[in-house]
Specification:
By secondary structure, this protein is of the alpha/beta class. The chain is built from six helices and seven strands, in the order E-E-H-E-E-H-H-H-E-H-E-E-H. Strands 1-7-6-5 form a four-stranded mixed β-sheet. The chain has a three-stranded mixed β-sheet with strand order 2-3-4. Strand 2, helix 1 (about 35-45) and strand 3 form a beta-alpha-beta unit. The two termini are about 10 Å apart. The structure holds adenosine monophosphate. Adenosine monophosphate (AMP) binds near residues 115 and 132. Adenosine monophosphate (AMP) binds near residues 45 and 48.
């Protein structure tokens, strides 16, 4: 049986595993849905963070949220894309971790989220932690033992 009795990995701060903010695709809450759709389509990510002008995390946005917002009764109302703002359609429930939080805390959260937004002590967005990175670290640790 595989066991992680030893706290070594679980106690490591997540700061070591973060994809830094400058490498993370994001949109701003006042961007149009059209712009957001372009960013999501071009990057190929299913969901990306929404930030305000001060780089604070405001929500998450996916293509599904945009499509649902422009779905009429019988057709997709594409003309709505220019007027709708990201702020109107984003999901404001965001899983957030601090840079100083541990791998153990991240492990609990990534069960339900493909990625987690990370903030510093001032609440500024510093990057994301993905389920892929967590699993990679876990695999490395298990095979080394
Ligand atoms: P991954 O584990 O690499 O497949 O990433 C899981 C999810 O995290 C992706 O579907 C995106 O929603 C998000 N993600 C990963 N990398 C980035 C990035 N560089 N910019 C924005 N979102 C990202």
């Amino acid at each position: 049986m595989i066991s992680l009795n030893n706290q070594e990995l679980l106690d490591i701060p997540i700061s070591e595993f973060i994809i830094s903010a400058e490498k993370v695709a994001h949109v701003q809450n006042n961007n149009s849905a059209e712009h957001a759709l372009l960013v999501l389509t071009k990057t190929g990510y299913s969901s990306i963070p929404v930030l305000d002008l001060k780089y604070r995390i405001e929500g998450l946005l996916s293509i599904k949220m945009i499509t649902e917002a422009i779905l009429g009764l019988e057709e997709i109302e594409y003309d709505k894309l220019t007027d709708l703002k990201v702020n109107d359609i984003m999901d404001k429930e965001v899983a957030v971790l601090k840079e100083t939080d541990t791998f153990q805390k991240a492990l609990d959260i990534v069960i339900n989220h493909a990625f987690i937004c990370v903030i510093d002590e001032e609440g500024t967005f510093t990057g994301i932690l993905t389920r892929r990175v967590i699993l990679k670290q876990l695999k490395k640790y298990i095979y080394q033992k």
